Amino acid sequence: MRIKHYLLLGFLAGLFGLAGYLISSDQLPSRDDREEIQTSSREERQILEWEFQDLKGDKRPLLSWVNDVVVINFWATWCPPCLREIPLFTMLQEKYRKNGLQFIGVALDSEVAVREFKETTDVNYPLLIGDADVVRFMEVLGNEIGALPFTVVLSRDGGLLYSHMGEWEQLDAEKELVKIMENLQISR
To answer: Where are the beta strands (DSSP E) in the chain?
Structure first.
């Protein structure tokens, strides 16, 4: 009976030791993780160089809006929460444009679908078409699962200031944007 007791204690000690090792080793990034973090930081600094096609067929780099704080909304015409956000973003664009805030919609969709949407919907900010790299761009910005809608706020130098996954409610969106503008000392 004592042997079974000691074997059980030994097994439990080994199990807890293994669990402790796994937990502690997850807290320190591995070499691969460190390289991925460095790559992500490098990619984040290059965000302003990303290009998306506009509805005229021209490539537009985010550098086009370098003097503005940019709100990029990743969306699709087939995404109901995305469509519910657009009137809010149109209103906020109107309200805060003079303060240096610029909304941009990057559609994970076909050019035809976005063009048809634009013809029937009042949108006062640029709508761009994302290509196959859009999911990778969203991942660099923190959306590891590629969910839509996904919205980020970038500083004038391309730094990530804020990200929001899912539908952004009016009170939360405006409160966050006003806080960002105040922190960046953008006059209202």
So the answer is: 51-54, 59-61, 69-75, 101-107, 127-129, 150-154, 160-165
pLDDT at 77: 97
For residue 83 the two structure tokens come to: 């469509």
Q: Token digits for 84? A: 């519910």
Domain assignments of the chain as residue spans, ordered by start: 2-42, 49-183
At the topology level, CATH places domain 49-183 in: Glutaredoxin (3.40.30)
Question: Could you tell me which residues are beta bridge partners of residue 69?
Answer: 101
pLDDT tens-digit series, residues 106-117: 999 999 999 999
Q: Give the closest residue to 85 by CA, choosing from 68, 96, 99, 72.
A: 72
Is this prediction's pTM over 0.70? yes
CA–CA distance, 37 with 54 (Å, rounded to integer)? 31
Omega before 149 within 30 of 0, i.e. cis? yes
Is 142 in contact with 45 (CB distance < 8 Å)? no
Q: What is the pLDDT of residues 86-130, one digit of tens each?
A: 999 999 999 999 999 999 999 999 999 999 999 999 999 999 998
The DSSP code for 167 is P
